[in-house]
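User: Hello, beginner here. Can you help me understand these amino acid letters and fold codes? It all follows right here:
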Amino acid sequence: MGCNSCSSAKDGQPKGCKNNGTCGTDGCNKLTVFDWLSNMSLPSGAEPFSCVEIRFKNGRKHFFKNTENLSLAIGDVVATECSPGHDVGIVSLTGELVRIQMKKKKVEIDSEEVKKIYRKATQKDIDLWQNSRNQEDSMKVRAREIAIRLNLQMKISDIEFQGDGSKATFYYTAEERVDFRQLIKEFAHEFSTRIEMRQVGFRQEAARLGGIGSCGRELCCSTWLTDFRSVNTSAARYQQLSLNPQKLAGQCGKLKCCLNYELDAYIDALSSFPKTDIKLRTEKGIAVFQKIDIFKGLLWYAYEGEWMNWHKIAVEDVNEIIAINANNEKVPSLEEFALELTEDTKTEFENVVGQDSLTRFDQPKHNKRRSRNRRKNKNGDTSEKETVVSNKPRNRTSEKQIVVNKPKNKASEKKVIASSKPKSGDSGNKKSNNQRNKKRRSRNRNNDKT
């Protein structure tokens, strides 16, 4: 918002002004003006300036005479002279600043362009004005459908009703001349009002409609820019910008107006630079211009045939070399001038988050299998040399398969399945020996019988 009293409410509408954007300082509208002379009183005997600046839809402003000596302030709604009927607008500027604006725009006080103010708008005038404004969007859609049906190469961008609703002005853009005589007849029959067609440029269309630019802010033409100067591609060349139409074009499809903002500063900076088409003659060869850095005052040159090796030279040194070449002399090489500007391009990256690890609060995980093996070794279970087959996790069973050191003879291979729990004493060994002796005895008896 333009003023402190117009803070936004929950629904997005301003609190201070009850007219959806019209406040005492006129700070919520397009092309606003700050009256810095409002707190200053006129000298004794001086009469206030009789003209007032009034704003209409989408920043359209005109000057009017206050012939009735009405006490007007910024934000007042007034009824002004128009042909035919009357129009309704909002006062945007009063006092001595209006005289300065008229002098700036070369508008004479006694000219026919400066019409008069009838009265302050009544409630009836405001209601009729608001009803006419509410019809503009639906009319614009219908008007575009009619223009498409008639195969006219034009774009209807905006519609503006007069304050009394007696006339509607259609703003359109077209690249070529358009014969809209049949279009006006159909518009008058469709909308039952007086029709006026007004062609505007693409920049004026963007200024009326508004929008957001590539910089993220509102368009300059719809907020504060009033005069549209011509923009050429030479402005982009002076600023060392790539000639990409998608990046250089604005919302209107033309070159951006902001290309002219810093053009004078670039031209002043380039006055000390040599021309880019001048070649440097050295004993090593002829050097050709490759690149320029206006802010640092540096130029890059490369020898003919060695296009990959660029030499960075200051502006003063390049001018010195050109002066030496003007006397039909050559410098030994560019390396003598470029060595002074060699810089260490090594970049050190720092940890922005900090030197602490992200897993510093995690608890360390212990290997359960290693802890079990350590417990076995502590209990003294070293009766036989055993090697584990694999370290892969196995199913949780009561027994583990352990292989004894294998002898070379395959017939003497023995596998012992040992329990995972350690055994106490030699009772287990005695039982196994007794069982083996019984089996041997039974085998011997059978052999004797046979």
